[in-house]
Specification:
Structural class: alpha+beta
Order of helices and strands: HEHEHHEE
CATH superfamily: Holliday junction resolvase RusA
Number of helices: 4
Number of strands: 4
Helix content: 25-40%
CATH class: Alpha Beta
CATH topology: 60s Ribosomal Protein L30, Chain: A
Number of domains: 1
Strand content: 15-25%
CATH architecture: 2-Layer Sandwich
Length: 153
């Protein structure tokens, strides 16, 4: 206890306990810029180019750091956006649309493109951190999760 009567504790470890985040499998830091797909008005070729560059960056980091062994399911994926400005919750989720599709396709490869992210074996959690001026990126943490449903039924 400190002199003012408050106990010192690690907020991140308590948050991880509440969310059930333990058994970190993978952590990736990818220097890409994400924007909310809901609010952007631009030519389709510019949007397509951004999506392809995000997809390529995720593939590149995934292949560099993750074994090609089968991925343990179920899992929780924490996607953290790092940017000078924060987004509201619905725009934050839209900013990770293509990241989510790409990651789910890598984890569950037998699904059709863009459909693996709806799997009940993946739980998605979104977060954001304020970065410095012109500091952009995403942090991906993947945790092995305990099943919340009976698999034998």
């Amino acid at each position: 206890m400190s002199s003012k009567g408050f106990s010192c504790f690690n907020i991140e470890s308590q948050l991880n306990e509440v969310l059930g985040l333990s058994n970190l499998i993978v952590e990736l830091n990818i220097p890409i810029r994400t924007v909310s797909e809901a609010n952007i008005r631009e030519h389709w070729t510019k949007t397509h180019k951004r999506h392809k560059s995000q997809q390529f960056a995720i593939y590149k980091h995934w292949l560099a750091y993750v074994n090609k062994n089968p991925f343990p399911l179920p899992c929780k994926i924490v996607l953290t956006r790092i940017s000078p400005r924060k987004l509201d919750s619905d725009n934050l989720q839209m900013a990770f649309k293509h990241t989510r599709d790409t990651l789910a396709g890598l984890i569950i490869p037998h699904q059709k493109a863009g459909q693996a992210d709806s799997s009940p074996f993946i739980n998605w959690i979104y977060d954001q951190q304020k970065g410095g001026i012109k500091e952009y990126g995403i942090n991906i943490k993947i945790y092995h999760d305990k099943p919340s449903f009976n698999v034998d039924s």
